Amino acid sequence: MALLEILEFPDPRLRKVAEPVKEVDDGIRKIIDDMFETMYNAPGIGLAATQVNIHRQIIVIDVSEDQSEPRVFINPEIQVVDQDLFSYDEGCLSVPGFYETVERPKHVTVKALDRNGEAFEIHPEGLLAVCIQHEMDHLSGKLFVDYISPMKRDRIRKKLEKQHRLQAS
Length: 169
Ligand code: QAP
Ligand code: CO
What we know:
The protein has helices at about 25-40, 125-140, 150-169; strands at about 45-50, 60, 70-80, 85-90, 100-105, 110-115, 120. It is an alpha+beta fold. The strands form two sheets. Strands 1-2-3-6-7 form a five-stranded antiparallel sheet. Strands 4-5 form a two-stranded antiparallel sheet. 2-phenylethyl (2E)-3-(3,4-dihydroxyphenyl)prop-2-enoate binds near residues 45, 88, 92, 93 and 97.
């Protein structure tokens, strides 16, 4: 397994749209294993392939307390069930150190393929529902900071750009 480099906002590669996976083969399973290792190492609860500069529709999530519930979503599709919204203070491995409240649909249905290429469907609740939507946004080039005010987003961008300059020198 290998740790992958996580892209950070405002890296333009985070804006690329991921392609569907054509076949869930050993190459895809290797990417999944490396993504879990990278996410657990961070540590984080969700990671989309886009964040490690792989522009394929692959997401890994584990919202358990003890890294005991790894979940994989390949080519995920989402349907909003009703108009109820749910607020959560979201963070992101690609926006380290910053958290903002985001409102998203509370009740969704998610269809995807698992690591064996088998189709499944779930009705996630709470943090899992938030996390799936957050990670699916990454696959479309979207970030949680896109939901906050342009002023807040710009402040975060400037702080991260400064950190990146310091790291590079
Ligand atoms: C996405 O985020 C998420 O700022 C997953 O310094 C987050 O794993 C979905 C992390 C919250 C729903 C709710 C963030 C680690 C991890 C940081 C993460 C940081 C170190 C974020
Ligand atoms: Co994220």
